[in-house]
Structure formats: structure tokens, C-alpha cells
Amino acid sequence: MRARRIFVPVLFLAFLTVTAGAQQAPAGRRGAGSINEADLQAWLTYLASDELQGRRTYTEGLGLAAGYIISHLAQWGVKPAGDNGTYLQTVRVVGVKTNSKASVTVEVNGQSRTFKDGEGITFAHQMGGRQTIEASDIAFVGYGLQMPSAQLDDYAEGAPKGKVVVYLGSRGPEAVPAGSNRLLTARGRNAVEKGALAVIAPASGLAGHGGQATPSPPAVITGAQPATPSTAGRGQAATPPPGGRGRGSTLVDNGDFTTVERYDTVVTPRLTAQDEFFEFLFSGSEVKYAKLKEMATTRATLPRFPLKGVKMTIRVDADYQVVRTRLTSNVVGIVDGTDPKLKDTYVAFGAHYDHTGFRENAKPGEDMINNGADDDGSGTVAIMAIAKAFATGPKPRRSLLFVWHAGEENGLLGSRYMADHPVVGNIDKIVTQLNMDMVGRNQDNDPANADMVLVVGSDRISTELHNINEEANASLTRPLALDYTMNDPADPQAFYTRSDHYSYAAKGVPIVFYFTGLHPDYHRPSDTVDKIIFDKIQRIAQLAYETGRRVANSERAPVKDNLGPRAGKGFKGRLDGR
Length: 578
Known about the structure:
Radius of gyration: 24 Å
CATH class of the domain at 2-20 and 29-94 and 324-430 and 461-470 and 497-507 and 522-536: Alpha Beta
Largest sheet: 10 strands, mixed
Strand content: 15-25%
């Protein structure tokens, strides 16, 4: 019965795609005014129902969710933007084996040693395409941390741009606040974002990244009961579980890493090293490695200094073999813009429509389905409402791209794939990406947060986009309280990297991430529709609509000044660009 239920809507959708015109909203309820609680509640009641079994990636439930979204897009006249004229973009998730021939040659005061991969130095299995980096500017940056709240700045002597960055100390100094593990594991990524040529850390210094050259962002939230065997957490690159055992069967070979990205693209090397490598690297320094290691172990303050007389040649060289391929799909649609010159550029709206499925180890009588009403059913229906508002109302000058990402819970799979394989042809055509993830509750279930929405990343790439979002909010009949606490670079939970917007930001696309905070029902069967505040989803969707509308009607795209995070806890209002 279930197999037939999937097949019938697909045929029906083909009919709708051909026959349905753009449905127009009544004149009195067009644009942001057409976004209403009744629609949101009706849609979410189905998407977060037990019938969809928690919308886990690769399952029938996620397919039913996709079909439901597609049926509405066709009804509203949203144009298909997926493969072969459909609303689906196939996401290829591949398991890859690596045959490494990589090495690092270090010269210290005329003496040279070569360390092969696995012999004193370790490259990520997903090390990227072949390249050779020759460097004479090697900087030891202590613990490699920037935490203004803890008065820590290991880049005070100079930015890492154009340098090979070396740091030590997996636990950081004593001054690091408790609960900062995400910041500690993000040090390599942060150095890369600041322009480092390469990053070298102790073997535990890049912990949690699964050996990837472009490590996955950390998981969104910890502390919840794992929902399924594939709950490595939001942003974790979870390797799909092996297949079952049966007569004549064997475990599935997932290779050395699982990815949706172009694994042969040249990326910045992030390496880990053993004692013998560091001993030679620091052999010409006034402070030797043995002393630095002792200081790092006791969490004492580390010095920072350039490694004089040191040259380094990093050779990235690997052959890759795909050993497994799995398929899932993003749902994608476009509303064309009206300006002949601007309609080939896009404002993108996104959410993830997958969740964590059901608990296979639930006891008899227990609720086993993780319905994901807030995570991210709330964002899913908000983007549906925005798509309907634009499709049935006034059209802006630029075009609008709507993406419901798959596999976010498995490592941002859908958004990473879209960022590498954009359906619009080139990622540079996307001038802004507005992302929603968990926008249907009050942070900590506190009624005092009823008007609050956390805004993350709006200022990092484009100050202008931050200001547009502020102005859009001020124009609403009921403005929201925009809270930038989670935008702080020292946010111990590193929210900037923890949802689909980060896949676009990593490609240089200005983003805004809307989020209403954590609550005890995260990744639990208790994340249900009856706890959703639909008025809140409506208001946040109207904010995103208005921000997107302003960007889409602007003669120029938001300027990318890349000044980084400046709006933090307690900040309100516009930024002046400094």
C-alpha cells in the first residue's frame, strides 16, 4: 500500500506540473500578508505526522514529504528547478577509498626531512585535489584561539593569511570556559577561513572531523537522546550504517570517507602530526617542542612566534575510488524575476525537510517516532509559505530559488551538494541565502522569548545584508526582537556552522540564519505539532520574505565586505561597516 501511495502522487504531480498555472492570491492578502497561521498549521500537521515516520534520509517518509511539498509548488505555479524538468535535484552521497601518496618535507636551518602520510604526519582521507604548497612563512600560534570573552587572541601578532599555521593543546589554556569543545575543534577551520595556506595540529587537535580535508561543522545540539543509529548530529558527516547481515551477505564497504562534495577539488590542507614531526619542526627554535608540549599539557599560556629558518613543502597527492553511492533528493523550485538584467541572479530561501526518523530501540508502548515538528518542520513550512507568497503575489526583479535540503541531519548533505552543484548554474548567481532551522518555539520554552529570533551570520560576509534585515524587521507591523548572541565568534556552540546556510557561506554567499533556540524536545519524540507557536513561524517567515524582497528588488547585490562577526550579545540595530 505504501509503495502505491508514493507512485500515485508522482503521476498526479506530473499532471499538475503541466496543467497548473500560477495561482493568484486575493488582492487583500498578497505578499507577506498572505503568510498565515492556518496554512502553516495544516502543512506541518501532515509533515510532522507519524505517517512520515520521522522523515529520515533515504526513507519512504522523506519521499512522502517531498511529494507533499512538490504538490503545493505545482499548484502555486512555482517552476521546477531540478533534474530533467522535475522539482527534485538528485543528491549523490558517495563512499570513497583513498590511496595516499602525500608527504610533507620540512627544512630547518639547512637540514631536511620528508614525512610521508601516516609516518609522523597524517593527511585527511579527503585531502582534495593534487597540489604542492611551498612555504617559508610558518607561524606557531600557541593554542590557535580567538575568544574575546576570555581575553584570548592567538592572532594578535598577525593574521594567518598566507602562512602555514601550527598550534598545540587539544584542551586549550586554563582561561577557556567550560563547554567550549566546539570552539577548540573549530580552530583549524577558523584558520582556513582567515586565509591560512595550511594548518598543522596535534593528533587530537582536529578531533571530531572524521579525517576530512574540509571537516564537517559540529553538530547542532548535544545532550539529547540519540534518535537513530545515524544521529551523529547536525553537521556531522555520518557514514551511512552498514547493511544488514544475511545469507551470503557482507557488510557494506563505505570507503575511507563519505561525501557529497567534489572530492578532487583543491582545498586547504589540514594535517595532524605526531611528536617526531613537531620535534624536528621546532628543532631550530629557541623554545623546543618538549617544553611547548609540557606547557600545553598543563594548559599554561603558550608563546607565539614565527618559525625562523624553516621551509616547508606540502605535497597533496591521492587517488580516489568510489566504492558506494546512495541517492537522496533536494526539492527545488524557482519563481522568475521580472527584470531582464537581474532575473539571472537569485535570492535563495532554504530549510531542511529531513529529520532523524524513529528510535529502533524504543521499548514497547513508547513513542518511537521523532516527528521533528520544530526541527525542521517549522522551517520547511515557513519556506513553503514564502514560496506561495511570491508565486501568487507581486514578483520582484531578481529571481527566487527555493530549496528544501535533504540530509541535513546526516552532515548538511543536500546543501553541500547544492553549493557544489547549484541548479542555477553558478553559485555566484546566488546573491543571498536566507535559511530557517527550528523557528517554531521559544528558546528554553520561556514565554519571555516570545518575540525573539536568533539571527546568525548576517554581518559576516555583507554588512549591507545585516542592515537590510534590520530595516525589513523595523518595517513589519509587529517587529521581532533580533538577538545576535549566537553570532559571536566565541559562541561555545558555534551556531554559525551548524545548519545549511553554512554550505553557502563557505562559498562566499552572504547569508542570514534564523533560529529560535533550543528546547528539551530536540531530537525526541516529544517535538510535536501541539507545541509549535504558529504565530511565531508566521512572523519570522514574513521577516525573511521582506528581507528577500528587498534584496531581490535592489539594483545591486549586497556588497561583500567580509568584515566578519561584529553583532553579538546585546547588540541592536544597524552596523556602520567597521
